[in-house]
Amino acid sequence: MADPTRRFSDRVADYVRFRPGYPPAVVDLLMTACGLTPAWVVADIGAGPGNLSRLFLDHGNPVVAVEPNREMREAGERLLGAHPRFRAVAGRAEATGLPNRSVDLVVAGQAFHWFDRAAAKAEFARILQPPGRTVLVWNERRTGGTPFLEAYEYLLLAHGTDYAAVRHQDAADDVAIAAFFAPAGFEKARFDNLQTFDLAGLTGRLLSSSYAPGAGQPGHAAMLADLAEIFARHQEDGRIAFPYDTTVYVGRLLPEGAG
């Protein structure tokens, strides 16, 4: 699989415009589950253009967005750089470049599955203030349950360049997450999330995916033709519902040897 830090370099504009944000219920959960307050410094790891960072900025938190992809990081700086509590830095989950014990909460949205987990765990434990609060979040696109969702999933399987591999890689894996948070364990919650699109928006959402053939690549025109047919068949009043489950894992990274 291609270097994950480069997969979205040519998709930034569509990613910014057409990928979903995260529901405010995530912040409500963290206020209850781990006592989140606006004073906490948040490190958003693999921050991309700042979709998850924005949620914490809106809550009043200082946010350091750690992102290895230059194009994504620059998009985040354009979108959020005027915010006085936002800072973007070049870094990876395994080497953030942040000082020891400099943040109160580490979060990662749509990114954990790309990390070297052992190295990332050690790095997060280094930069976190005790008790090592860490949150992993996914917006998981629903792949079935309605005729449109089933047709869209079939389109990705038919036209995606490496969709089957990425779908498996992207899926939140409770076993891997349990190992990451061991020995402290974690809490898990799910929330509904929804986008609605016209055909142009649905096209942009598709092209924001790293496995969708881009303009000039084999299969691009056929994929968009099939997408237009699916939209025409399933749209209501010129729009289509695009639902997600937002899955949140909340845990602590204990110091080495702690139990």
Word description of this protein:
Helix 1 crosses helix 9 and helix 6 (147-159) packs antiparallel against helix 10. 38% of the residues are buried. The protein has helices at residues 12-18, 25-34, 51-59, 70-80, 117-127, 147-159, 163-170, 174-181, 199-207, 220-234, and strands at residues 42-45, 63-66, 86-89, 105-109, 133-141, 186-197, 240-252. The protein has a domain at 4-142 and 168-196 and 244-252: Rossmann fold (3-Layer(aba) Sandwich). Helix 3 links the parallel strand 1 and strand 2. The protein is built from ten helices and seven strands. The chain has a seven-stranded mixed beta sheet with strand order 3-2-1-4-5-7-6. It has 259 residues and is an alpha/beta fold.
The side-by-side strand order for the widest beta sheet comes to 3-2-1-4-5-7-6
Secondary-structure element sequence? Answer: HHEHEHEEHEHHHEHHE
CATH architecture level-2 label of the domain at 4-142 and 168-196 and 244-252: 3-Layer(aba) Sandwich
The total strand number stands at 7
Helicity, as a percent range: 25-40%
The first-level CATH class name of the domain at 4-142 and 168-196 and 244-252: Alpha Beta
Structural class by sheet pairing and helices: alpha/beta
First CA to last CA: what distance?
36 Å
The CATH topology assignment of the domain at 4-142 and 168-196 and 244-252 is: Rossmann fold
Low-confidence stretches: none
Number of helices: 10
**Share of β-strand residues:** 15-25%
Mean pLDDT: 92
CATH homologous superfamily caption of the domain at 4-142 and 168-196 and 244-252? Vaccinia Virus protein VP39
Shape call: globular
Q: Please outline the major beta sheet.
A: 7 strands, mixed
Radius of gyration over all CA atoms, rounded: 19 Å
